[in-house]
Amino acid sequence: MSNVQPPLRKTAQFLPPLPSPSMNEGAIANIAPGDVTRIAIAEALRAVRIAAENARNASVAIFGDMTLPEGGKHVKANDLSFRITNAVLPVVDRAREKLEYEIGKLRAKTNAPAPDVSVRGNFMATEIRQRMASLDQSARLAKRRSVHRAF
């Protein structure tokens, strides 16, 4: 009778890690109630957390099934995790689109006006540059400061 034990990986049940406890969509949604971007992030994070928990629970069940060979367990767990993850991607994409839309609105709101490219606009810009070039350094800096204070 041999006293050799089978490797631990053959006898112990495989338990993938649980999703991180820092994945708390409630905390994100409550930072600024009513903020559409935070609500979108919270919804996406909730879907991702649930999918991660479902993938983990499915993997535990698959690796606990002693009727499947070791390789078959890995293939089945991989396939199931892939399907669970792909089901969540549209939610994450919608949240990303909402964020990009809100960022675009902020950029449009804070952008400077477009430069005047007409003949008159080019003439005025040339005149301003010539006047600024004709000033000495201290007068030029004083003029720039007064323009910056106006805005």
Structural class: mainly alpha
Basic shape = elongated
Uncertain segments are: none
Helix content: over 70%
Strand and helix order: HHHHHH
Count every beta strand, where a strand is a DSSP E run of 2 or more residues: 0
What count of structural domains? 2
- Count the helices. How many? 6
Overall pLDDT metric: 81
Question: What is the beta-strand fraction?
Answer: under 5%
Distance between the termini: 90 Å
Largest sheet: none
Describe the model:
With 151 residues, the protein is mainly alpha-helical. It has two domains: 104 residues, no CATH class; 39 residues, no CATH class. The protein contains six helices and no strands.
Brief descriptors of the model:
elongated, 6 helices, 151 residues, mainly alpha, single chain
How are the elements arranged and paired?
Blueprint: H1 8-11, H2 25-31, H3 36-64, H4 70-110, H5 119-134, H6 137-150
Helix pairs in contact: 2-3, 3-4
Can I get a quick summary?
By secondary structure, the chain is mostly helical.
